[in-house]
Each structure stands twice: as structure tokens, then as C-alpha cells.
Amino acid sequence: MSAAARCGGFPETSGYNPTTRTVTFTPSAALAAGTQYSVTVSGATDGSNVMDPLTWSFTTAAADTTKPTVTGRSPAAGATNVATMRR
């Protein structure tokens, strides 16, 4: 079987696994956050049978803008007589 896949003009690689009958599409660059993409798969054949083109779209998640935080400290701020080794 062979197939071609395109996603919003991104360069990509695609491969077919005959055991699972799965086509895997992998963009060669990270997709942008909060962006809608359209994927088209066409040209898949298994001999003389050719699939109808299939197109779908998806939107990537928004960028994570949450700042990292510290949730615990050990030893506590201002601690004295802190042991040099754990027991």
C-alpha cells in the first residue's frame, strides 16, 4: 500500500504499517499552539484499488502560559542546625 499525507503545507514523513494497517503522519517541525490544521490523505492504493481522498482538520492546544512555581522547600527558609547528611 502507498499513501500521501499533507498537513497545512508542513514538510512531513509518512509511513504505512501493513500489520496494523495504519498510516502514520509525522510533521518535521513542531506545530504551532492554538492553530487549526487540515490534513489530507490521498493516493492510498492496494493494487488497483485507490481510496477516495480524505480530509479532516484539528486545532492544537493553546500555549501553556502558566509560570512554574515552587510548592515545597526543604530545609525551610531560615532553618538552622540543618544536618549535613540524611539518615
Structure, explained:
The protein is mainly β. The protein has a domain at 2-59. It contains no helices and five strands. The strands form two sheets. It has a three-stranded antiparallel β-sheet, with no helix packed on it. A hairpin with a 4-residue loop joins strand 2 (12-17) and strand 3 (22-27). The relative contact order is 0.20.
Which characteristics define this entry?
two-stranded antiparallel ribbon, single chain, mainly beta, about 90 residues, 3-stranded antiparallel β-sheet
Spell out the blueprint of helices and strands:
Blueprint: E1 2-7, E2 12-17, E3 22-27, E4 36-45, E5 54-59
Antiparallel strand pairs: 1-4, 2-3, 4-5
Order of strands, widest sheet: 1-4-5
Characterize the biggest β-sheet: 3 strands, antiparallel
Number of strands: 5
Uncertain segments: none
Instruction: Give the end-to-end Cα distance, rounded to a whole number of Å.
Output: 62 Å
* Class by SSE composition: mainly beta
Summary of the model, kept short:
The chain is mainly β. It has no helices and 5 strands.
